[in-house]
Amino acid sequence: MTIMHLIIPEHYDPKLSVKETEAAIRYIRETFQDEFGKQLGLQRMSAPMMVDKATGLNDNLNGVETPVSFTMKDMPGEQMEIVHSLAKWKRMALYRYGFGMHEGLYTNMNAIRKDEDLDNFHSIYVDQWDWEKVIAKEERTEATLRDTVRQIFKVIKHMEDEVWYKYPQAVHHLPKDIHFHTTQELEDRWPDLTPKEREDAICKEDGAVFLMQIGGLLKSGKRHDGRAPDYDDWQLNGDILFWYEPLGCSLEISSMGIRVDEDAMRRQLKAAGAEDRAELPFHKLLLAGKLPYTIGGGIGQSRLCMLLLGKAHVGEVQASVWPQAMIDQCEAANIHLL
């Protein structure tokens, strides 16, 4: 049964009380970030909740969402924006802080996406581990991308074991391997399905999928999904997706990719009709070849907790704002939103 973009599973049992869930959230978040940092060789760094609009550092997402913005008493005439993500800020940080080859950072990113359509997986509050790592220009390849995805999948699988040890009654078991597909492969196979239906179909078949090449036009002339033109290289990016049996659909855990070089930036800005961004400070540095070549992405903190604990709604593992009708529907189904 679907109400207000809401999937209500039959006979839902949260298995953990709210207090037990909070303890599990803390354990997953603290344990995962340590293991993830070690596996990818990343240093924990502090990050902003807001950026100056004039820097061009905020994530434009699909280009239609508007960020929460405000002005400051001590900086009149300048507009600050609550971040959508730190996709471009991280690359600038690696440059500013002097990170060397194969060094990188991760950070706790907290964002507000006020235009989000709310459902079991989506909240206006976004919490994720944003990460970025310096690579050589010759490492901007699909092989590098696949190897990094396998490293992240390994950490997620390790977390499944750790959670099972502490909360055996609650853990949601994950597939053993992750499979790689492109968006064009999915369109060729299921031309009559929507992009989301294709994701559901391949994830149900394979269990865990890295879906590659998101943002550019497919043979049909349509995009699988939107991506900002100024951070991911649309030929070298993708999403980590899991088949999520509790809700009978796919669940995205991470969006990531090898970042644009100078040529990809120019090509994608033109394709997006956003060539005016080339005059922003971040874009000028990149097009001048001054920023490091990088790979990076985000891993949803609440979504990872939701996945590992088998929760029916992201609001069970994060405190946010929800329509009263959604709160009432969830409570009636034994889904307790924080």
UniProtKB/TrEMBL annotation:
Signal peptide: none annotated. The keyword Methyltransferase does not apply. Keywords: Amino-acid biosynthesis, Asparagine biosynthesis, ATP-binding, Cytoplasm, Ligase, Nucleotide-binding. It is found in: Cytoplasm. The keyword Transmembrane helix does not apply. Its EC number is 6.3.1.1. It comes from the Bacteria. Residues 26-323 form the Aminoacyl-transfer RNA synthetases class-II family profile domain. GO terms for molecular function: aspartate-ammonia ligase activity; ATP binding; catalytic activity, acting on a protein; transferase activity. SUPFAM superfamilies: Class II aaRS and biotin synthetases. Pathway: Amino-acid biosynthesis; L-asparagine biosynthesis; L-asparagine from L-aspartate (ammonia route): step 1/1. It catalyses: L-aspartate + NH4(+) + ATP = L-asparagine + AMP + diphosphate + H(+). Belongs to the class-II aminoacyl-tRNA synthetase family. AsnA subfamily. This is Aspartate--ammonia ligase. It comes from Lacticaseibacillus camelliae DSM 22697 = JCM 13995.
